[in-house]
Amino acid sequence: VIKVLFFPPFLSDCTTIEDLEKAKAPLLDYLANAGCLRPLWSIRDRDLLVQDIVMFQVIHRVQGPFQRFHEGLKTLGVLEKIQKHPDSFRPLFCYEPSPLTADQLDDLFAIRLSPEGSNKRVVEEKILAFATGASVVPPIGDDDFSSTPLFPMANTCVNCIRLPPHASYQLFKEKFDFALGNTYGFGRA
């Protein structure tokens, strides 16, 4: 049974014609705009109504924008190039999951503060203080940043993991795997 995701009671859950009429009442404007108004003579009409709604949501609602997109791609011959070289355009139109790399992870969490002394920097430091509860180096310290450690380090007291940079992803992976495999309980590798 397809669940039509509107406010409860869901149309697809109705078991009596009375419940169905009650569930349909707040949706009349939507059903009229979707072209899904139909008389409900029996509970079997529920499934036809649900099919109409699904057809509208999945097909008809997007058909116009899709056609305009299609026509737009024809401009300057883009559609023709896509049809001739589909594999070249696939990454632009289709999501393909790929393994997360160390560089991608680094890019996700890069801190980019505004210049010191600027008004934006003051606000950013306030946000940092709010998020971490500290506006200065914590009393437990931050380890020595002057030397780069060989292995990742974690501090469970402040929910922090430190991932040192390496020359290659393979080297990073080896050091990370070693650290995970050789750390027991509270400790560091």
UniProtKB/TrEMBL annotation:
> Which keywords has UniProt assigned to this entry?
Transferase, Ubl conjugation pathway
Query: Which positions are catalytic residues?
Result: C157
Annotated HECT domain ranges read 124-189
The organism's superkingdom is given as: Eukaryota
Q: Which Pfam families match?
A: HECT (PF00632)
For the keyword Transferase, the answer is: yes
InterPro entries noted in UniProt: HECT_dom (IPR000569), Hect_E3_ubiquitin_ligase (IPR035983)
* Presence of keyword Transferase: yes
| UniProt cross-references to Gene3D superfamilies, sorted A to Z | Hect, E3 ligase catalytic domain
Task: Name a GO molecular-function annotation.
Answer: ubiquitin-protein transferase activity
From the Swiss-Prot or TrEMBL record, give the protein name.
HECT domain-containing protein
Task: Name its species.
Answer: Amphiprion percula
